[in-house]
Amino acid sequence: MIALDDTDRAILHALAADATLGAGALGRRFGLSQPAAWRRVKRLEEAGVLAGRRLVLDAQALGFGVTVFLGIKLAIKGRISFEDFERAVQAIPEVQVVQHVLGRFDYRLKVVARDIADFERVLRRRIMTLPGVGQIEANVMLSEERRPGPLG
Amino acid sequence: MIALDDTDRAILHALAADATLGAGALGRRFGLSQPAAWRRVKRLEEAGVLAGRRLVLDAQALGFGVTVFLGIKLAIKGRISFEDFERAVQAIPEVQVVQHVLGRFDYRLKVVARDIADFERVLRRRIMTLPGVGQIEANVMLSEERRPGPLG
DNA sequence: CTTGAAAAGAACTGCCT
DNA sequence: AGGCAGTTCTTTTCAAG
């Protein structure tokens, strides 16, 4: 865990909005020289706070208009069940996120499909046939908004 | 909606793993010249498929060790209820993602907190006081894995 | 689609305050 | 910590085949 000052937070905030900003642009924005801004970004990367940069793909533009969140409860629990489930779920390309959780469910999956008919196919042929699956609950996503989150 | 060939998919796949790759590196990897790879990336951006690049922040390294998913059902429904809820939830910095969903819940929230005690504070003072909140269900995240997802 | 070239900018280094 | 100067690499945009 690293100590962040206001400038670090400002840099993270700016990068959270646009990860393509370089050290020069950041420096100009916050009154630092290019090397100074660069050193701060590098320090944040090395501290592990800035863990990387990920693509934002528009599923809609790719033809995947349906996003569904699934809560899954395993029928049988135990180390083997979790490992079997996790291995099998990785083979389903429509599953974008696998979250191991504690609570009423054991796993939460974010699944994309071309349309509802396509989602039904994925659900019946891929999800419901996963090893150890017990109860399944679905929430269809209407819209999503991301926020920067607390920064230290 | 745009037509993607195998090379486009390969580029998106490589960028999904590491969004910092430039046109030069992509070209070398897939047997294209640097300008050819650059034009493809630009085309994907202009088509809206490649919607941007986002930071990956390590909440753990920032001191936020607890991530909880909340399913929230509103007690009262209607246009005003949704607008009120969405406006109020935006003011909570610990809420990183707000998903409007269809199903047993109306909203799903991804919430980060420093620890369980901090989460209890957020839940009781911020979440449970949101306008119109009915039923709340929580799942504590143990681990998360992201996968590239289907690319066309 | 390619190559080549040129301009601009970004990344990185070393030294100094 | 920050700045300045300088080198090197990449990106971006040409022109031409």
Describe the model.
The structure is a homodimer of 152-residue chains. In chain A, 37% of the residues lie in helices and 31% in strands. The first copy, chain A, is an alpha+beta fold. Chain A folds into 2 domains: 6-46, Arc Repressor Mutant, subunit A (Orthogonal Bundle); 66-140, Alpha-Beta Plaits (2-Layer Sandwich), CATH 3.30.70.920. A 4-stranded antiparallel sheet of chain A has the order 3-4-2-5. In chain A, a hairpin with a 3-residue loop joins β3 (95-103) and β4 (107-113). Chain A is elongated, with a radius of gyration of 20 Å. Chain A starts with 5 loop residues before the first helix and ends in a 6-residue tail after the last strand. The interface between A and B is large, with 60 and 60 residues. β3 (95-103) of chain A pairs antiparallel with β5 (133-146) of chain B, so a sheet runs across the interface. Chain A binds a DNA duplex (17 and 17 nucleotides) through α2 and α3.
Attribute tags:
homodimer; 152 residues; Arc Repressor Mutant, subunit A; Alpha-Beta Plaits; 2 domains; 5 strands; 37% helix; 31% strand; elongated; DNA-binding
